[in-house]
Queue: 2 jobs
Job 1
Amino acid sequence: MELTNKTAIITGAGKGIGKATAEALAAEGVQLGLLARTASDLEQLQQDLSSRYGVKVFTATADVANSTEVRAAVSSLASSLGRVDILINNAGTGAFAKMVDMDPEQWEQIIRVNLMGAYYVTHELLPGMLEQQSGDIVNIASTAGERGFATGSAYCASKFALLGMTEALMQEVRKSNIRVTALTPSTVNTPLAVNAGLPIGDEDRMMQAEDVAQLVLAGLKLPSRVVLKSAGIWTNNPQ
Ligand SMILES: NC(=O)c1ccc[n+]([C@@H]2O[C@H](COP(=O)([O-])OP(=O)(O)OC[C@H]3O[C@@H](n4cnc5c(N)ncnc54)[C@H](OP(=O)(O)O)[C@@H]3O)[C@@H](O)[C@H]2O)c1
């Protein structure tokens, strides 16, 4: 499917997978709305992508865990873009500790950002997609949404739930020509993985944010008759 002149909102676009996805979409001629909490990251990316690819890029800051901030930021981006064809729910956080050692505020915060954040942004944009009878929603989940591991109770719970929300919504809106997809990457070499102390191993063999972005792009380019239900992407970095 041709993506030139489509429009996309990407959450968590300032770093890692979101930033790489913004670049991959800009290279295809997609007009962008970038959202994260750090304005300077977004402004730098806005300048870079608009000058290199000649696409329109708008930015808005919000904490996706805050529904009021999400409403203001998403409506500003949507009105600047005119319509929203693609939503990439990518903003996420990760912290890993045994349940007994993680305080309830941190546990809850992971659910708020990774699950409620995706829900708030989607809820704001769904009416427009239903009205235009088209859209693509891509949720960045994780292999942690498919199997649990020690120290991952909050992160795994958030990603299992995100996959459940994805599948339920996919069934709800596919007859309206809206595709809802999840990607389930294993560890990717990004600030999140490094800050959380995840094993990166041999950097040359480690999956990069740009690799995940290519899968996002491939899914979006599939003909609209095809729904990519969920797709795994693994690092080929045996430890
Ligand atoms: N890296 C991995 O190994 C891996 C593997 C599987 C899945 N994932 C998933 O991929 C997604 C992206 O992860 P990443 O590794 O690219 O992370 P990252 O490098 O830490 O980047 C995360 C981005 O999200 C933004 N963000 C974080 N919390 C936010 C919030 N509350 N509200 C709005 N924006 C927020 C950050 O910017 P600000 O801090 O400025 O807001 C940043 O731009 C996440 O959903 C993560 O769970 C990552």
Job 2
Amino acid sequence: MQKDASAQIDLEDATQIFLEAFQKWTDADCGDGKHPRIKVVNLGPVACNVHEYNKKAGNANVILFHDKVWPHAGAGSTLALTTVTYNVETGEIYDADMELNGANVEFTTGIDNVLYDLPSIAAHETGHFLGMSHSADGTATMFADYMPGSMELRSLENDDIDGICAAYPPGDPIPAECDPTPRRGFETECSPPPIVAEDGSCCATAPGSPRSAGTSALAALALALGLAAKRRAVRARP
Ligand SMILES: [Zn+2]
């Protein structure tokens, strides 16, 4: 989490809401008591308050609120935006950042007088963070539109569960040495200076360098959660 969180919701509460949102995805039931083979680790608050991916320096996969000005298009209709940077050949995710529109959106967190339900929005955006795209299924949490006042997106539906289980199929336990450090190190400041290799050759293996280390082109995919233009399909409840 970005350390300032929002005037609407403090760092502690925001952290808890997003931890719970990620847990919905990691706890998804893939059948036979198995779960998606992915682990989410909170490395602590981050100072940088913009979305960025540094090709030659450390990074953070950050969740941040824009309280003053929404810096993207659609300020009046966009609730949140998650940008995922990935290798277009392998699909490996290099960086993910989530931005929430605190400047134009009044978030609520409880179950009474719901306006823009942050736990619902968090469930949707954490799906993007893990690589999920939008679903055409109107009942899915990954459907692209949100109806104000709704808490429907809080729970994953079959389409969401099918998706995350296909993307991260269950398998052997995740080894203890699995390292959650972002690419080129965990960096909480914005745009840090490039990492210089010990032999003085800067960044020889940085992704984006021509064919170095077998890497290839990057792409950034930004996916927004917007206001629903029409009613969502009625979700079947268990
Ligand atoms: Zn979305």
